[in-house]
Amino acid sequence: MKFLVMTDIEGVTGITTFPQAEKSELGRRMLMHDLKAVLAGIQDAGAEAVVYDMHTDGRNVNLEELGVPVVMGKPINGRVYRGVGNEFDGLYLLGLHAMQHVPGALLAHSYLREYDAIFLNGVLMGEIGVETALAGEQGIPLRFVSGDDKGCEEATALEPGVVTCAVKRSLGDDAAVCLPPEQTGAMLRDAARRAALAPAKPFKLSAPWEIRIHFSECDYLHTMRALHPEIFSGDRIVTMRGDTLLGVWSKYLGYEREMIAACVRSLA
CA 88 to CA 85: how far, in whole Å? Predict the structure, then answer.
């Protein structure tokens, strides 16, 4: 068995603010703590893993502390899933969080904080849902999600059989009851092992695919409208369609990367 482990930081042990999650020493240290525990659990089940670093620029994982391949830099490929293909027996989502506007959820957002909502084939989804659907299209089931309790509840509502591990209990936007690393390490290792051995089926939605992204009022919105007015279906709504979810989502990610780069240049 081989699993793809996708890592975020907002949902790892002890993190309660965006500055902690964004390139801070604490965020990266806690990411490595949780990741090593999950990889140990996968190894306990006799399985292999490939890590995909998906937080910010995808360069947060310390390779010196791991003995598995890591996809870094968040490659965009509309034909090859995550740049490495679909030969996986399951998807692990480590350090995830609830989608935007979930009441009482810690650090809730959907990819960019400037996105107000994301709809996939008319269904409101955050990062957990979109990543689950992308994997499901490739025949890869969601097996494991770790994060705060609200993010884990979101995963269970989407896939009732998924193994979850809540490393903290949300008390609001930037507050939580955080369990100590000694405890979360043991919890994550056990949950990761159980997830590898549990039965799971890929999540399925039907083609054709429609992604609808609602922006908040922000510089990104104005930049995207200037760069690609053809994808707007409303003042703040981008709508894209395609025959494959991987293809249409990858195309949008290309536009998103272009948008972010243009905004960075304007501030230089």
Answer: 8
